[in-house]
Amino acid sequence: MGRELKRMGAPFSQPLWSAQALIEAPQCVTQAHQAFINAGAEIITVNSYACVPFHLGETLYQAQGAALAEQAAVIAKKVAQNAKQTVLVAGSLPPAFGSYRADFFQSDRAFTILNTLYKAQDEYVDVWIGETISNIEEARVMARVLKNSNKPCYYAFTLNDEVSEQATLRSGELVSDAILALLEHNIAGIFFNCSIPEVIEQALRDTNTVLKQQNKHLDLGAFANGFTPIASDYKANEGSQGYRDLSPAEYVAFAKQWHSLGATIIGGCCGIGPEFIAALVKWKSDIEAL
């Protein structure tokens, strides 16, 4: 959503990020959602990712954070209801202290922030995504927020951007340990997001191993980014991560790997625009035609 708003020419700057359009030009948020739906998207995510103090600042968050998150949910719901195809709205529980930085995480404060966002969006969403989760404790806090939800709850982890024999979160913790930690909670599925496409294959393999050992079944999914690898000391409010040269056809090739490993919910994160979704939709249609 953020990079699509920027590409469209919507109001967009640090530190407000995708919240700036929500504040100054909400019609651009509608247009961005519509662009993905026109490409064939079946799930859109509420533009609440930046409705946290990290992006809004404490004063604006206290004054308008909940209202902005609710506004974002209302916008998404209206666009989905007007779509030609069935479109689900996913409520977003984002990182409370900035993307990728597990070292900044504070459990109690995060619960308060995320619970506020949960209450603001819940009336308007069909499913929930705790997204860009960098460490196991963050996942547990999101699970506490979603404990009593009667809607499908998904958890999307962001991975270290380095291919290895065991997939790890940004915190350095093993993906396998993260999956084990969530199995006792209200969980419909596991996703991997906002990581380079190359690292998601191993994460899915590790997840499948754990689920098989525990005799569990969960939905699996992936929505990678189009960034260059992210450094461990990334400073989210001090600049934009650079893009890599990644085509829709190349992205679909990665998606085919993920699908072969059980991923059934596949989309895109930062830099993966509507043209990528259109390519995924065509591939899906080709499969269904066989």
UniProtKB/TrEMBL annotation:
Ranges of residues in domain Hcy-binding: 1-284
InterPro entries: BHMT-like (IPR017226), HCY_dom (IPR003726), HCY_dom_sf (IPR036589)
Annotated PROSITE patterns: HCY (PS50970)
Residues involved in Zn(2+) binding: C194, C269, C270
Superkingdom of origin: Bacteria
Keyword Electron transport tagged: no
UniProt-listed Gene3D superfamilies: Homocysteine-binding-like domain
Keywords: Metal-binding, Methyltransferase, Transferase, Zinc
Cofactors (names): Zn(2+)
Protein's name according to its UniProt entry: Hcy-binding domain-containing protein
Organism encoding this protein: Pseudoalteromonas issachenkonii
